Amino acid sequence: MKSASLPSLRVEPEFRKAAEAVLHEGETLSAFIESSLRANIERRLNQKEFIARGLASRDQAKQSNSYVDGESVIKELRGMLEKAGKRSA
Q1: Is residue 36 in some structural domain?
Q2: Chain segment 40-50, per-residue pLDDT in tens
Q3: How far apart are CA 33 and CA 22, in angstroms?
Q4: What top-level branch of life does the organism fall under (predicted)?
Q5: Residue 50 and residue 47: Cα distance in Å, rounded?
Q6: Burial of 19 (0-12, 13-18, 19+ CB in 10 A)
């Protein structure tokens, strides 16, 4: 597949220096920008899927008229957190 290029990006000199300052040894600014873009795309896709699952869950709860109150959820999450903490100690 033929590669494509992205639009050039104009930034303040300080911003470029900040980006260059965090590069790993042997890493190019182009590689850093590409990996940052890939990570951001993955994060946004995950976020989109998370929202879709939440909306589907909401619709299912409306349809079945089966809801769980917030206090019960918080209580269960706290219990899970305590249990995980005990395992790691």
Answers
A1: yes
A2: 999 999 999 99
A3: 12
A4: Bacteria
A5: 5
A6: middle
Residues ≥6 apart with Cβ < 8 Å to 19: 29, 32, 33
Residue 8: inside a domain: no
What's the predicted TM-score (pTM) here? 0.70
Position 85, amino acid: G
Answer yes or no: is 18 within a domain.
Answer: yes
Structure tokens at 23: 């590069």
Q: Domain residues for 75?
A: 13-88
Q: Which residue has the tokens 């999450």?
A: 77
**What's the number of domains the chain is made of?**
1
Query: Residues 19, 29: contact at Cβ < 8 Å?
Result: yes
- Residue 30 half-sphere exposure toward CB, CA atoms < 13 A: 4
Note whether residue 3 is domain-resident: no
